[in-house]
Amino acid sequence: MLYPSIDEMMTKVDSKYSLVVAAARRARALREGGKTDIKSPRSHKFVGVALEEIYEDRIIVTRGEE
């Protein structure tokens, strides 16, 4: 079972594509030296940590200008 599940994550964003873009951007920031507020993340990979941050509302995904 994946944590957090896609069904739980869909309550935080308007589409799966927004979720992928937001997680990828945050993972890149973490890889480049960004710090996370999560004390003990369940995942050791940057994308997993980014998804946990979004799920815990530490990162808010907003819709940008199109």
From TrEMBL:
Stated role: Promotes RNA polymerase assembly. Latches the N- and C-terminal regions of the beta' subunit thereby facilitating its interaction with the beta and alpha subunits.
Claim: Cytoplasm is one of the keywords in the record: no
Subunit-level organization: The RNAP catalytic core consists of 2 alpha, 1 beta, 1 beta' and 1 omega subunit. When a sigma factor is associated with the core the holoenzyme is formed, which can initiate transcription.
UniProt GO cellular component terms: DNA-directed RNA polymerase complex
Domain of life per record: Bacteria
Gene3D superfamilies documented for this protein: 3.90.940.10
Signal peptide boundaries: none
Enzyme's top EC category: transferase
Family affiliation: Belongs to the RNA polymerase subunit omega family.
Protein's name in the database: DNA-directed RNA polymerase subunit omega
Catalytic activity of the protein: RNA(n) + a ribonucleoside 5'-triphosphate = RNA(n+1) + diphosphate
Keywords associated with the record: DNA-directed RNA polymerase, Nucleotidyltransferase, Transcription, Transferase
Organism: Paenibacillus borealis
EC number: 2.7.7.6
Keyword Transcription: yes
